[in-house]
Amino acid sequence: MIRYLILLAAMIAVPEIAQAQQFPSNFLNAPVDGSVAAWIIRTFGLLTILSVAPGILIMVTSFPRFVIAFSILRSGMGLSTTPSNMILTSLALFMTFYVMTPTMDQAWREGVRPLLDNQLSEADAAQRIAEPFRTFMTRNTRDKDLKLFVDLANERGQTPVVEGKVDYRVLVPAFMLSEIRRGFEIGFLIILPFLVIDMIVSTITMAMGMMMLPPTSISLPFKILFFVLIDGWNLLVGSLVRSFS
Fold it and tell me: How does it sit in the membrane (predicted)?
C-alpha cells in the first residue's frame, strides 16, 4: 500500500503533471474498453492521496529537517511569531521540492509516465516509482537507526530485508528518526551563537545593576542584526541543502 501511495504522491508533486496540456484529459473518465477495475483502483488511489499527502510529505522527503531547523532558528532568536508558521512551512515545503526534484523526476520518467501511457501495470509502476525514494531514504538514513528497526522487526518475527532491499515498514521510520536527529543537530549549531549573545547581554546588564530590565529585550536587536550581517538565511538554506546526499 505504501508503494502505491508514494507513486501517487509523485504523480501529484512532479511539476510536469501540473501542466494541463500534458495531463491526460481522460484520466478520471470511466473507460469503455473493459478496464474498469484498473480505473477504479487508480481513481481511488488518487483521491486517497489527496488526504494523506501531508503525511507522505513528512515520511519520505526532506521536509522534517527543514522545518525543525527553521523552528529552532526562530526560537533561538527569541521571535515567537516572526516569521509566521505559514512562512516557515512554505519555505520548508519549497526547499523540499528543490531537494527532491531529482528523485521525483526519476520517478516520473521510470514509473508515472509509463503508467499514464498504459505501458505499465499499476504494480510494476509502483515498484519503479518506489525505487528513487528508497535510494534517497537509504542514503540519508543512519546505519544505527536502520539497524534498530531491523532488529525490532526480527524480534517480532518479521522479515525486514527481502532480496537485499529493506522493507518500507522498516526504512521509513528509520529515515524519519534520522531526519529528526539531524534537524536537532543543525538546530544546536544554529542556536549556539544566539545563546552566546544572550549570555553576554545578560552579564552586562547584571553588572550595570539593571535587574528589572529583561536581557532578551536588549539582546533581540543584536541577534537580528548579527543574523542579517552574516546573511544567515543564505548560509542556513545552503547548508541544509548541501547536507543531503
Answer: Multi-pass membrane protein
Residues in the chain, pLDDT under 70: 1-39, 122, 160, 162-164, 245
Chain mean pLDDT for the chain = 76
Domain boundaries, the chain: 2-242
Q: Are 6 and 129 in contact (CB under 8 A)?
A: yes
Say whether 78 sits in a helix, a strand or coil.
coil
Are 4 and 122 a contacting pair, CB within 8 Å? yes
pTM over cut 0.85: no
Q: At what angle do helices 2-13 and 168-207 cross, to 10 degrees?
A: 60
| H helical segments located in 140-211 | 143-155, 168-207
Here the cell at position 165 is 532491499
C-alpha cell at 223: 541577534
pLDDT tens per residue across span 25-46: 444 555 545 566 666 777 777 7
Q: How many CA atoms lie within 13 A of 221 on its CB side?
A: 2
What digits encode the pLDDT tens for the residues 139-157? 888 888 888 888 888 777 7
Neighbours of 50 (CB within 10 A): 9
